[in-house]
Sequence to fold (917 residues):
Amino acid sequence: MRLTPLLILFSLIGLTASSVGQTSTSGGRIGGAIFDQTSGEALIGATVVLEGTALGAATDIEGAFLVRNVPPGNYTVRVSFIGYTARRVSDVVVKDGELTKLDVLLSEESLKAEEVVVTARAIRSSEASVLSMRKQSAAIGDGISAEMIKRAPDATSADALKRVVGVSIMDNKYVLVRGVSDRYNQTTLNGATMNSTDTESDKRSFAFDMIPSNLLDNTVVVKSATPDKPGDFTGGLVELKTMDFPDEQVLKVSVGSSMNTMTTGRVISATSGSSTDWLAFDDGLREAPAKGLDGYSIWGGLPNSWMNRSSRAPVNRSLSVAYGDHFVYDDFDLGMVAALSYKSGATRTETVQDFVIGSGPLRMSGTNDEYDVLWGGIAELHAKFGGGSHKLSTRHAYNRSADEKVQERAGVDFQDREIRSISTQWMERSLYNGQVSGEHALGILGGSLADWKWYYGATRASEPDRRRLKYQRGVGDTGPFAIVGTENNERAWTALNEHTRGGALNINVPMGRAKLKFGGSLESSNRSYGVLFTSAEYLGSDFNLTTLPADSIFLPQNFGPNKWVVRTLSSRSDEYDADRRVTAVYAMGDIPFTLLGEQFRLVGGARYENARLRAFTYQPAYANGASTFVPDTALLENVDVLPSVNLTYAINEVMNLRLAYSNSVNRPELREIANVSYYDFVNYEEVRGNPSLKRAWVDNYDTRFEFYPNVGEILAVSVFYKKIYDAIEQQVVWSSNPGKRFVNTPQAENYGLELEFRKSLAFLDDWMERFSVTGNYSRIISEVQFSEVRIVGLTPDYVPIKETFTDIRSMQGQASYTLNGGIHFTEPDWGTSISMMYNRFGVRVDAVADIRDEDIFELPRGTVDVSVTQRLTSSLEMKLTGRDVGASVRRYEFRTGQVYKNVLVGANYGLQFSYAF
Fold:
């Protein structure tokens, strides 16, 4: 049953591929879309005619058109629509069996307007189309197209997003926008909210390493709010969009391999694993022990998998296949897309820690050997009918990943003990999102449009049979290492499940030049979290049983009276069930107007959100001398009215000045209000929820100047300011067992500057048209008020005198700056594309402590990525990539400048071949 999603995807690919040949065409095709130049809205019913022929088409509900059976040649295409200035596009070249892409913008007609003539060469770039969408968008935002993703050596959506201005990535998967941590951002996939996929940190944010980049059509990061967007985002709303209606048949297969300079070919550690690990499934080898086993046999009945095996790390592998087609049956258009992507690989990192803090010194070093599997697929079916006035779609996306981590560490801990530890972890994550949606031209109220969707999402994550052994002895002791106490060995099983259901309806009503849009949504989710945490205690007198090696110490014969006995340390108080419900309605106006002869566009309104979050736990209690558990509920309810306004001043046809203001909120994650603790296996920290957490309230101010000198080019300057009340952060609590907790900080400010440019070098020479440069820079400052208690002296009786001090610090997760740069070369005649990209971030607050000097910072780090794509034949393409060339070291320090840890990583070099049938 577990392989059902994979089998469905393969079946869909096979079924759709078998349909090839049902329709036949001769000649070529011209297809694209027609949009309003001011608002970016699709123009329904616009006329497209090839001059000198009887060929033509009308646009559908998405503004799209397709002219079929066009004889090869050079054409002039005339596009017209009532109330708009007609546009003639010359030099449209059509080749036999190929699709010529053509997107056209029309402006509203004036009394002295004449027909506009442009060339087709200027409007064919998909990268340019993303910039065009930005130019006409109602809100401030940025994006990255499928074209740019293809150029870069990016394997996941997280890798691709770090190219966007103001965006940085933490832990290779969590997105920070404009300096605020990942928890202040929201993510949607085809308009549906995405959920957390981690049990190890159970973070609020979405893990972007779950989505293969080659399954994305484009990604947009919305930075200023409009009433039709969710109110629970502050830094950015990341909108992921998978492939949509294909313009032509495509069947493409890609295979690739890569190596890591610090891993591939080296001896690394791994577990014995199960037979289906390569599919990111455990086959049952790691299942939790059966109920009813007593303390003597609970581990003895499990596989003796404590000792890791050594092997040489193989090369990394990848495979993808994508199929799409478009069929026309009289007045019925059918489009379908199916794609599958798979990659696996191993990575070694080395960590060194040597510092002294309040509770003592820590001097540890070790390795982290990781084996990753990621695969995902999409299956989509789209139908247009009624002359293109109606569209129905169904989309399904399934992604699955697994990470096996083997950590081996040695050194001296805070308690002056010499330590040798072995930890193993297997984490499975799966993500399913399915939706049915519709778009309809109503033909009433001046041509109103309606769209709706219903979606269902399921997120599952589990850590079966997580294991840790820690041997110790006193510093200077020459005796054997031994396991002492229950805290030095563990086996645990953790599971997280979340189900989300939602629906939305939007109505767009034209009112002359203005538009009124209103609608509503309802989303609910249910989450459950459970853990079985066990540890062994030694009750005997023969301490030789505590010094046995990992593959012998917990054999079945070592359990029993006066030997090892297993304790179940977890209880009902470590589990929780929770639910979330958010109901929203909104109304907004989109009003273009003229003032003193200048053109403006005002988009504004308000969004009403009624949110309820509940977490159900059981807390320990004592009654009649006996220990028991009583139910406990954490409840957070808020009704918020969130106004927003976006004003665009069109200085001229190529320049915009934008101003925006909005209110937004940041609600706690369900895990964060649940009154339970869980153990962060990676960072060796206990994390506890806080049922008293409040939702944060944010004032957002934005200004942006945009200059589009030519198609595909941009120069943009942005300034933003955010004031956050009751900001939610994670705070480090240092002790002999370090931990973290969630807290509200009374007030925080976040402000900064963003610069971005994309420029062709054609102005230097005609041949230099093949080169372009891109770059962006963000300077971000945040200020958080915090209080800490300091000892300022002693009384005559030597009692510490304490005072509370208030100070300012940066927000957790915020980098002082981000920098991206790139140079790109494209030669269509050679089939060659070369990109060199640079990414760097400034000092970043990695963790906030309860004592300011113990805050942890990640130091600035830059990476260089290179990609070379070469067409070998008309169907075969080769791509060479280099990621993190130079393999920079990740460095972490305390505020005092004392080193916290250094992490060594390797560079990745890859080779991929793609064949289009």
